């Protein structure tokens, strides 16, 4: 009987997991904007908290004024991003033939050195690596993310509208004050850790982007502002984002310049920035706020990337933080929290 009961329980668990995966995939158009809105809400709250700490003499800014300044700052950042992309699009189109010509020259030189008789054209090479499918997937994911921007803004506005009454709703949902306090404590811890992660990651990504921009400008790489923006965004993707932040600008230098020297400068310079920020600065700022296994972060990145594409990669760590905190608060799920943690110590 016990064996049969165990099989039934296992079947139920597998069925729940399967249904959850299907719902996550089918409902991604609804869920991705909602999760992005929660991240935006958390970032604005963190920014507001830091602005409120600034004092002008004896004057302390009110919460509403600090929130308004945070919204203005974030809106200005979005406007700057739009201006950078809009101003560089025509220049990128004009430079494409030059890059193709240089690429063909590099390819011809390479196949000559390797002793290959038939020299493939750049078009044949790009078709062989199926770059079209890759760009189609990338463009589709980014386009889907941008098309969800309006929903993100609407959800964020309503989250702020609900924020003052959330505590009252928790008290109404709980059977007794003790349960309400426990529920509020869990939600507060989730919000605090996610806020800290988003705030610190934003600052670290901004520093990485600015330093990368200086290296790109120093070498004279085209579209340095666009590459710096890409570095900022890729830095939110664990591990893989850092590799792409170095590899993509470095590859551009191969088709922009006639020598390997700029390529080496970019590869070493951007690599040094990523190494110093990623291995020294970021752990010093975030080491005590997050307690997550590097292996589990990679697995989470892969899982959410396959499920939700590029937005899933950006959201993988915040989702993992929330899941780990919730699991740590329940005895039946505590083992999962231990597996997700960096050292098995949940008392932090």
Topology:
Blueprint: H1 2-26, H2 28-52, E1 55-56, E2 59-60, H3 63-114, H4 122-128, H5 131-147, H6 149-162, H7 166-173, H8 177-219, H9 224-234, H10 240-256, H11 261-286, H12 294-308, H13 310-328, H14 334-340
Antiparallel strand pairs: 1-2
What labels describe this entry?
globular, 348 residues, mainly alpha
Could you walk me through the main structural features you see in this protein, from its secondary elements to its overall organization?
There is one protein chain. The chain is mostly helical. Helix content is 82%, strand content 1%. It has a two-stranded antiparallel sheet with strand order 1-2. Helix 13 crosses helix 14. The longest helix has 52 residues, at 63-114. It starts with a helix and ends in an 8-residue tail after the last helix.
Shape: globular
**How many individual β-strands?**
2
| CA-based gyration radius | 24 Å
Overall residue-averaged pLDDT value: 76
SSE-based structural type: mainly alpha
How many strands, which pairing sense, and closed or not: the largest β-sheet?
Answer: 2 strands, antiparallel
Low-pLDDT segments: 125-132, 134-138
Oligomeric status of the shown chains? single chain
Strand order of the largest sheet: 1-2
Number of helices: 14
Measured by DSSP, the beta-strand proportion falls in under 5%
């Amino acid at each position: 009987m016990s064996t049969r009961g165990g099989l039934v329980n296992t079947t139920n668990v597998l069925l729940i997991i399967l249904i959850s995966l299907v719902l996550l995939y089918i409902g991604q158009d609804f869920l991705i904007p909602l999760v992005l809105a929660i991240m935006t809400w958390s970032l604005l709250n963190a920014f507001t908290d830091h602005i409120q700490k600034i004092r002008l003499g004896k004057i302390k800014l009110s919460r509403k004024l600090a929130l308004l300044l945070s919204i203005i700052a974030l809106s200005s950042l979005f406007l700057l991003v739009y201006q950078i992309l809009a101003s560089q699009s025509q220049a990128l189109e004009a430079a494409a033939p030059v890059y193709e010509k240089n690429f063909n020259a590099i390819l011809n030189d390479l196949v000559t050195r390797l002793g290959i008789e038939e020299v493939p054209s750049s078009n044949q090479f790009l078709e062989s690596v199926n770059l079209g499918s890759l760009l189609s997937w990338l463009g589709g994911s980014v386009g889907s993310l941008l098309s969800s921007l309006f929903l993100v803004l609407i959800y964020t506005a309503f989250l702020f509208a609900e924020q003052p009454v959330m505590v009252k709703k928790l008290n109404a949902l709980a059977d007794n004050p003790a349960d309400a306090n426990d529920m509020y404590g869990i939600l507060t811890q989730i919000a605090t850790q996610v806020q800290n992660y988003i705030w610190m990651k934003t600052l670290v990504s901004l520093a990485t982007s600015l330093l990368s921009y200086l290296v790109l400008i120093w070498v004279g790489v085209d579209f340095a502002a666009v590459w710096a923006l890409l570095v900022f965004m890729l830095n939110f993707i664990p591990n893989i984002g850092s590799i792409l932040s170095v590899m993509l600008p470095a590859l551009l230098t191969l088709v922009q310049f006639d020598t390997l020297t700029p390529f080496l400068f970019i590869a070493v310079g951007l690599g040094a920035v990523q190494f110093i920020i990623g291995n020294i600065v970021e752990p010093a700022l975030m080491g005590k706020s997050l307690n997550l296994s590097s292996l589990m972060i990679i697995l989470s990145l892969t899982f959410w990337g396959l499920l939700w594409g590029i937005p899933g990669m950006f959201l993988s760590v915040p989702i993992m933080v929330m899941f780990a905190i919730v699991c740590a608060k329940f005895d039946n799920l505590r083992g999962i929290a231990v597996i997700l943690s960096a050292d098995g110590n949940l008392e932090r």
